[in-house]
Design goal:
Blueprint: H1 2-19, E1 32-35, H2 40-54, E2 58-61, E3 71-75, H3 77-85, H4 95-100, E4 113-125, E5 149-150, H5 157-170, H6 172-185, H7 195-203, E6 209-213, H8 215-222, H9 225-229, H10 233-236, E7 237-240, E8 251-258, H11 265-275, H12 278-288, E9 291-292, H13 301-304, H14 323-333
Parallel strand pairs: 1-2, 5-6
Antiparallel strand pairs: 3-8, 4-6, 4-7, 4-8, 4-9
């Protein structure tokens, strides 16, 4: 009799423990995860503020297009398209977020939202190029820049999306003509580097021009690279905002989505909403150096020091069908698909 009663009490205690909130969901004991592909330390102050406000612990990883965190941050529309094709995203369409992010900067099917803008502008060496001399990407096709343009590889998603936008705006033939002229201007034995490498090649006067995502300038400053190179970028480089009399400056997005199948969707959506709040947008601009998607939030002081611009209003979803054409153009003009660094 005693044994049966003891066993019954043990079962009851186990059932009571299982039913208590702290043990109801093992996932609740683990931090929510989010990735940042330009070193976790830069996103950390933004996440710290979210955790302070919400009480939700968050781990930031350095993952780049692994699509394996609860909240997924993805660079460039092309990579967002690949993640969507892989089924990496939950559908998160929401009327309140639709009201914040313009349709041109979010997924048509509600899988992701643009959370920051990335501007791919021209940088120039102030000793070799006059302010206002470059007003459009088309100006880079002028033969006077032969041997003076630093390139990034054709396989880079930023360059692929840029050329795709030209196809949408002006057609295949015009985009192909531009790519050939710019490739020719890089010289017969063109050297290819990443955006950060090209920043310093232009700053040191090795080349007159390059087109880069402007946040790389900020990262180089934040990482102390000016001291290492013995140059102040503001002294040697200018930023040219392009096509201000036409379509507007080409921009792309960093997108945010929620991982398909995550057990933490409610908490993940709280982080998504924070990143798109006024407070979140201001913190992102200050710490990861990109432009807010919200029109009611000003860019950081460092970004404002580069000057202001009017962004292209092209719907990024219209780029999706043009990447094969882009790759064909780059191959045909000899724009190499790999780079030295």
């Amino acid at each position: 009799m005693f044994r049966c009663r003891a066993a019954w009490i043990s079962v009851a205690l186990v059932a009571a423990c299982v039913g208590t909130a702290p043990f109801a969901n093992a996932a609740d004991k683990e931090p929510l995860t989010v990735n940042w592909y330009h070193k976790a330390q830069f996103l950390q102050p933004v996440i710290d503020q979210f955790s302070k406000d919400s009480g939700i612990a968050v781990k930031v990883t350095d993952a780049y297009d692994n699509f394996d965190t609860d909240v997924i941050l993805v660079s460039d529309y092309k990579s967002l398209t690949e993640a969507k094709k892989l089924g990496s995203f939950e559908e998160i369409r929401s009327p309140d977020l639709d009201a914040i992010v313009p349709a041109r900067w979010r997924d048509r099917d509600g899988n992701w939202y643009g959370v920051m803008l990335r501007a791919r502008a021209v940088i120039y060496n102030k000793a070799q190029v006059r302010p206002g001399e470059i007003k459009s990407y088309r100006d880079l096709a002028d033969p006077k820049w032969r041997g003076k343009i630093a390139l990034r590889s054709a396989s880079n998603m930023y360059n692929r999306s840029l050329l795709a936008s030209m196809i949408v705006h002006d057609g295949y033939a015009s985009a192909a003509s531009w790519a050939k002229a710019v490739r020719d201007n890089a010289g017969e034995r063109a050297e290819y580097s990443g955006d950060t490498g090209n920043i310093w090649r232009v700053a040191k006067g090795e080349f007159a021009l390059a087109f880069v995502n402007t946040y790389y300038l900020c990262y180089e400053i934040a990482k102390g690279r000016e001291q290492a190179n013995g140059l102040k970028l503001a002294d040697t480089l200018g930023v040219a905002w392009l096509d201000q009399d036409g379509a507007g400056q080409h921009v792309n997005v960093t997108g945010v989505g929620v991982r398909s199948g995550t057990a933490r969707k409610d908490d993940a959506m709280k982080l998504v909403r924070f990143l798109l709040s006024k407070q979140g947008q201001a913190l992102l601009s200050q710490n990861v150096f990109k432009y807010p998607v919200r029109s009611d939030v000003a860019p950081s002081a460092l970004l404002q020091s580069f000057g202001s611009f009017r962004a292209d209003e092209l719907n990024l979803n219209d780029l999706e069908l043009h990447y094969d054409e882009v790759d064909g153009i780059y191959r045909s003009v000899g724009w190499r698909a790999w780079q030295e660094e």
